[in-house]
Amino acid sequence: MLKISNLHATVDGKEILRGLDLEVGAGEVHAIMGPNGSGKSTLGNVITGREGYEVTEGSVTYQGKDLLELSPEERACEGVFLAFQYPVEIPGVNNTYFLRAALNAQRKHRGEEELDSVAFLKLVREKLEVLHIGDELLHRAVNEGFSGGEKKRNEIFQMAVLEPRLAILDETDSGLDIDALRTVAEGVNRLRSPDRAMVLVTHYQRLLDHIEPDRVHVLANGRIVASGGPGLARRLEEEGYAWLDEGGIAEVAEAS
Amino acid sequence: MSSTETVERHLQGRYKHGFFTDIEADALPPGLNEDVIRAISARKREPEWLLEWRLRAYRKFLKMTEPHWAHLDIEPIDFQAISYYSAPKSDKDRPKSLDEVDPKLLETYDKLGVPLHERAKLAGVAVDAVFDSVSVGTTFKKELEKAGVIFCSFAEAAREHPELVRKYLGTVVPQHDNYFAALNSAVFSDGSFVYVPKGVRCPMELSTYFRINAAETGQFERTLVIADEGSYVSYLEGCTAPMRDENQLHAAVVELVALEGAEIKYSTVQNWYPGDEEGKGGIYNFVTKRGDCRGDRSRISWTQVETGSAITWKYPSCVLRGDDTVGEFYSVALTNNYQQADTGTKMIHLGKNTRSKIISKGISAGHGQNAYRGLVKVGKQAENARNFTQCDSMLIGKRCGAHTFPYIEVQNPTAKVEHEATTSRIGEDQLFYCLQRGIGEEDAVSMIVDGFCKQVFRELPMEFAVEAKALLEISLEGAVG
Ligand SMILES: Nc1ncnc2c1ncn2[C@@H]1O[C@H](COP(=O)(O)OP(=O)(O)OP(=O)(O)O)[C@@H](O)[C@H]1O
Ligand SMILES: [Mg+2]
After folding, report:
1. Which of A69, B9, B209, B282 is the most exposed place for a label (fewest CB within 10 A)?
2. Which residues sit with Cβ closer than 5 angstroms to ligand 2, an ion?
3. Three-state DSSP state, B375
4. Rounded to whole angstroms, how far apart are CA atoms B201 and B184?
5. Which residue in B372, B373, B381 sits closest to B349, CA to CA?
6. Are A62 and A196 within 8 A, CB to CB?
7. Residues 6 or more apart whose Cβ sits within 8 Å of residue B463
């Protein structure tokens, strides 16, 4: 589904990603861990086509297509979703209105009929119920005045409504209370299906207690330096990153 | 100036090889002198006293000099090169049907949701008299008459209700108030007159929507609204259709008088021709608007959405003369390409316990320059005056500018004046957030801008709010990217 080869990318002329390789198959959930500033968010931004992130070498293929050719909104319409590490506020723009505009833009792109407000509201209520989210966030402006946890929850809610093919969750679990963490896990697990893929960027094992990943990768200095099964995450939590050899890419054997 | 000319000009501008029709107009030759003023007055069949009033204003005008203090970059205006009276053309000169009108113009109407028969009228097509604004006006007139509300053209009011016009004309904006007000007082072409009697709640929104767009519109309207004790009126004026006007100068005067316990809501959606992408052409919009809360407990509220004009110079103001009076100003001003706007308000607190609120939203795109200039003045006698000002600017792109000039003069120590100001560049991060959800760039920008303006749009009547929103979208097309 997603194949990244030898990806080099710069921000403001500074090289952040330095030959990153990653392959995520349909139906798989991968976790990416790694020290602060190693390039995890940068990877998400490059995949989704954010302005200012320049790819200098390498390729990103998504469902057989060259993803780098597409504009950010085309990528979104093709089913690429990013749950932001820091979701932005858009004052005065109603959350429901925003999400309907997004969904309808994507439906239009796929040649499907746009949803009217009644049908949309029905869909939204279903999703809220499943995720155990109250409906008060529907009436507010996009992320305006939301607490950190509410913003993250809102990202998951948007993901649930938009039903992407490839979802990248950038530290969606950071700063969440136990209930909110369950909401995130629920959102991810509900969306898990043979034709979808997910990439979870996280610093903590606790999210992975709720979502069993197929693969765990360590990103350091702009490259994947180690990959393994779920056990790798546990070992990282216990031992940190120091034990990893930064020189070569290691395939870490299952510890458990 | 007629819409026919407008369309002609538009066609010429867009299509170099488009057809050209020589138009005959009932217009005075360019130039400004006492004879011109006499001629205007005669054509409007005005009473003698009004002519005298105009001439007095003209003599004051001659002694005044053009202001230079606004944050604007203006070519000098040659007042002798302007024609001060232009009556509608005869029907034979107009386009015969919509087929003859620039499709681009029609497309704009389409986006604005202007009904078909209205489009024809706006484009200056000679259409059946049924759609004439005059007849539309008269259907409402019956209902208004029942309520005792007078709503007519200024010229008609001068003939039919001279006692009211004489009593109030020039009492809010004196002739010599400023250069353009003096000019307007001398040469005003037409405008509207409203009188709402004691205790009457005007049964409908009064609107000059049709008239402003109609061929008769002059560059120098004069509007006078009087709300008698305990009455209420909501008045809307708009040129919601992008009229490709070739006039260089538009200098209107609006006077509002609210007597004891009365309330006036005055909403404007202004979209005069802003000039082309390079900044050529467009309207110079110099308008003096002022409301006088003359009686105790009266209330005046201005709401404006300004998207047009090459240059806008406009400060709708409130004089809070009575005790316990309230003045409000809600404004969205957008400048794109080479547009310049210098707009804001003055709140003059004279009575006790007076309150004012100012919400100003400036949006600049392209090379647009947007200045907010606001004065809050609290007089010696104005015990317990309160003002709240919120002034937000949004920049789209890197070549535009926003400027804020708040002036505060307080002569009474019990006053409380609060000012908040923010400037933000349309967030690259906000934009990306929308794009990442699949929303296209133009939709994203208009969504963000619309959200930014929400506090002001909320003050507009429903249909007007929809139009205002559509206008912003059209005005911002191509602003990003
Ligand atoms: N717009 C930018 N301008 C300059 N440097 C940037 C920019 N964006 C990211 N960087 C730099 O790139 C590096 C990688 O940043 P990135 O946000 O991808 O890290 P991360 O792995 O997500 O870290 P964290 O775990 O703290 O979220 C950092 O050194 C950061 O300072
Ligand atoms: Mg990060």
Report:
1. A69
2. A 40-41, 85
3. strand
4. 31
5. B381
6. no
7. none
Here the tokens at position B246 are 């070739």
Give ipTM to 2 decimals: 0.94
Residue type, A207: L
The amino acid at residue B374 is G
- Tokens found for residue B458: 């909320």
Query: Is the distance from CB of B256 to CB of B231 less than 8 angstroms?
Result: no
| Burial state string for A87-103 with b = 16 or more CB within 10 A and e = fewer than 16 | bbbbbbbbbbbbbbbbb
Tokens representing residue B22 in the block = 């020589």
Is B439–A91 a contact, with Cβ atoms under 8 angstroms apart? no
Q: Which amino acid is at B174?
A: P
Reading the block at residue B296, the tokens are 């105790």
CB B251 within 8 A of CB B286: yes
Report the DSSP pairing between strands A223-228 and A215-220: antiparallel
DSSP secondary structure string for all residues of B123-135: TT----GGG-HHH
Ligand 1 atom closest to residue A45's alpha carbon, by position in its atom list:
18
Closest CA relative to residue B282, chosen from B305, B307, B309 = B309
Nearest Cα neighbor of B154 from B168, B143, B140 is B168
Tell me the C-alpha distance between B452 and B426, whole Å.
Answer: 10
| Average pLDDT per consecutive 10 residues, chain B (481 residues; last block may be shorter) | 36 27 50 87 89 96 79 68 58 52 56 51 37 39 84 87 96 93 89 92 74 44 94 80 52 94 91 62 78 98 82 87 97 80 90 96 84 92 96 84 88 94 82 96 89 89 75 70 46
Residues of A in contact with B448 (CB under 8 A): 90, 93
What one-letter code names the amino acid at B445?
V
